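quick one, 393 residues, struct below
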Amino acid sequence: MDITEYFEPAEVNMPPRPGNLPETRLGDVIKRFERGKEPPDISGTDLAILGVQEDRNAFNNKGCAQAPQTIRNKLYAICQGDYEVKMTDLGNMKPGNTANDTYFALSNVLTHLLENNVLPIIIGGSQDLTLAQYQAYARLGRIINITAVDYGFDLGNAEEHFDSRSYLSKIILDQPNYLFNYVNMGYQSYFTDNQASQLMERLYFDTFRLGSIRENLQEAEPMVRNTDLFTLDISAVRQSDAPGNGNASPNGFYGEEICKICQYAGISDKVTSAGFYEVNPEKDHHQQTAHLTAQMIWYFIDGYYNRKDDNPARDQNKYKRYIVQMDMYGREIQFYQSKKSGRWWMLMPNTPISNAGIKRNIWIPCSYEDYKTAANNQEIPDKWWKAHQKLSV
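---
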């Protein structure tokens, strides 16, 4: 499949390199689609950037289609980390005649990248493009987990009016359905409808309030570790740090917190696509939001090149095992800690996963706090209960 026909070159305006510094900026090392030259191929590429200038279904944020250009200008001026970056910038997708045409084209491109083990970094555009991200996995028949960093659940009525605030309901209602779990990080209660919260509970999805994550940011790491698709709405960041968004509000993550979350997403061995959405240059004071988003993407890249290849299902000898007897519940919980990274998992052994009697080991990312909850308090961690309920449905 030739995906280059979907793209046009993106103009990049990098500031001059200071002094005689070596070519270590991302703009110096990323292969990119330049005007008058052949499009780059993706052979030998780990990560691919693609801009999607689509905001026809944006909720209260028209103008975010222009974000890819301003974010690129900031991203390309940042120095790479202490690793060899193998990235290709495919350029900007040509807009479809309708938003649905854009979704179709984007899902085609993403399917091709996923099949070739290239991780796409999508720079939107509005967050309804997450639907195209999901559709790429559905095309491949992959059941996935989604993590969304957002101040709401985006559960509007997609049948009546589809936009960036209703894309999740479209995914949930998709048949056949390939969504196993959805995690929301950073929702704010005063923006969240009670019925939406109740639906999240009935579906056994994982939702975490902004305050609970900020109290212990390290707990965000196991939340995103089991994710395939990562999507981020910049409105989850406080307005003082990211003013360039029509839905910005006084509360949200601080810049350094959102960068750390992006690094956690990058370091997850399971994440295979990431989307950064809703930056609006028309509302961006001194391009502050574009600059922050470029740094968020840098942290995601940094996480990717520091992945630990942790997978307890492959070789349990590389993990310390702790068995906690839960006398009150008449069961035990097995915890595994990686000797390499120190990260934790819970094991649900020989768990039925279908009505056909198929069983397999289920590994649930967790934290040391979850282990202490079980070992010291004799309480079954919420992550274990939710996974158990979901698999029992």
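DSSP finds twelve helices and 14 strands in the chain.
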